[in-house]
Amino acid sequence: MQVLRLRNKLLLSVTAIAVVMVLLFMLATSWTVGHQFKEQSELSLIKASRIILTNLDVRKQNILTASQQLANQKNLGSTIWYLAKYGQSKVDREMLLVTYLNLARDTYN
After folding, report:
1. What whole-number distance in Å separates Cα of residue 45 and Cα of residue 91?
2. What is the pLDDT of residues 6-17, one digit of tens each?
3. Segment 26-74, tens digit of pLDDT
4. Are 83 and 103 in contact (CB under 8 A)?
5. How many CA atoms within 13 Å lie on the side-chain side of 49?
6. What is this structure's pTM?
7. How many beta carbons lie within 10 A of that of residue 50, not counting itself?
8. Mapping DSSP to helix (H, G, I), strand (E, B) and coil, where does residue 89 land?
9. Can you tell me whether residue 71 is helix, strand or coil?
10. Distance, CA of 100 to CA of 92 (rounded, Å)
11. Are 71 and 65 in contact (CB under 8 A)?
């Protein structure tokens, strides 16, 4: 009877240790996978931010070039003034575009 109790306690102890070991293994695996996903996400964010910064630099350069071209045109002040007035009003975008094109054509001529 005592041997049976001892055997049951031993089996219960081994089972408890096995459960603890499985839980520790699952925790370590979960932490490792989570850490890998975090690193992949950080790399993706870094890559995306580089692409965004590159695109912003290209747009900045395009705006600078367009500004320099506009600065070389005559009657630029009146063109900008009219466009600003139209932009501040509640004018239809198509009307604003047509007005801009007419002013740009007039300025170019």
Report:
1. 40
2. 889 999 999 999
3. 999 999 999 999 999 999 999 999 999 999 999 888 888 877 776 676 6
4. yes
5. 6
6. 0.47
7. 10
8. coil
9. helix
10. 12
11. no
